[in-house]
Amino acid sequence: MIRIFNQYVSPKSVLLVFLEVGFILLGLLTGVRLRFWGSPEAFDSYVQAPMFTFQALVFVVTLQMCFYYSDLYDLNAVRSPRDQFVCLAQSLGVASLCLGLMYFFFPGLLIGRGVFFISTALIAGFISITRGALDHAWQMAAPKQNILILGAGDLAQTVACELAGRADLNICVTGFVETRPGSGELRNAALSGVPFLGWAEDLEEAVETRKISRVIVAMENRRGVLPIRELVRLRVQGVDIEDAHSTIAALSGRIWLDLVRPSWFIFTDGFHRSRATLILKRLLDLVFGLLGLVLSFPVMLVTALIIRLDSKGPVLFSQTRVGFQGKSFRLLKFRSMRVDAEAASGAQWAKQNDARVTRVGRFLRKYRLDELPQFLNIIRGEMSFVGPRPERPVFVEQLRTVISYYDERHSVRPGLTGWAQVQYPYGASVEDACRKLEYELFYLKNMSVLFDLLIIFKTVRIIVAGRGGR
Are residues 71 and 7 in the same domain? Predict the structure, then answer.
């Protein structure tokens, strides 16, 4: 299993990305060759031009982004060959539109109409054939990774269920091994459809006979019963030994608070905050904050005008939120609710189809346009581009009393977007706040500039698709 940003990623999806980069380049070069079929000198001059490498890079990156945003690399999205081809055609259409706009504003990027149309048609054919061939080859030849779970209780069942939901990883849970008799736990194991392979003394034999490459330790209580000697022998023989909580986090992208113990936070890897990373993160916040403010200024002017025409009240709305180290600040937003939205009821969670939201406000929330003034909060250092979303003080006081580790989210600057925002629907209850905290803790554990860029990339996808707030 491959890990990227401490999450398990399908080897097949990674292979697809690299293969299709190659086939897009092949399609482009073949298109150039066909366009200048009768003139080898023109072909050499075209591909050796100073701008050709940059033009090809823009072409490849644009197509790959459109493939990603169309879920062509989501192997859990089951599609028939016909549906997959339709999705590919739609992606190429959107990519053509995006490239057309770039060519209009930056003519130096243009690769030529003839080359463009020939290459796009070839790429559609290459990728369709490649995906079909890879699907058949993967089913026949891809090696499965055999996994054994040490333990047979509730934690082990959770691990087995999470693994079963990730067929894209090409793994096989071969069975459970328990440390001591416990009929209740073994009944649980039997219910999952995964066989019971024996006791701790049978661990090494089970690993050898079943060709196990990874053992996941999923025992609620390890004191005095963990088979240390057997696990050490397996580890030095090259078998991977992994803690169940780390496995679940890597599979789901969140830290399950109802399963994890306090000691896990102390001894697990991650939660690094190097000074260099924090300085670079702040510099990027300033650069992107200023750039975002300048680029979005015309949109903000139009938005302000529409809000003024739609309903009475101020255009901008500020609200006290809890930020870095628990300090309060005034968060800026475009007003999306009536002025008297909380006059009678006081602070309350947002709801689906919230009656307090104005007509324009519903549109602004869907596409996250109400958040644009927060570029100013980022420039002032009150917020970051990526981090846990800041909450209101009244809700913070309520949540910190019922959710463990809730205040840990205030150990970094709050964000305009965050891992919880791209992974979980809009929260509207204490239970939702708990689930979102699990994603936020995963972000804090794996925080890096590259992870921030991935979250921004996913945020753009959500905005384009109109899956914004309520």
Answer: yes
Identify the pLDDT of residue 213: 93
The DSSP letter of residue 337 is: B
Domain count along the chain: 3
Nearest to 198 by CA among 208, 263, 10: 208
**Which range of residues forms the domain containing residue 123?**
2-141
Do 313 and 419 belong together in one domain?
yes
Residue 71 resides in a domain: yes
Residue 158 CA to residue 169 CA, distance in Å, equals 17
Look at residue 424 and tell me whether its pLDDT is greater than 70: yes
Domain end call among 252, 283, 316: 252
Tens digits of residue pLDDT in 87-131: 999 999 999 999 999 999 999 899 888 999 999 999 999 998 988
Assigned domain for 343 exists: yes
Indicate if the pLDDT at residue 184 is higher than 50: no
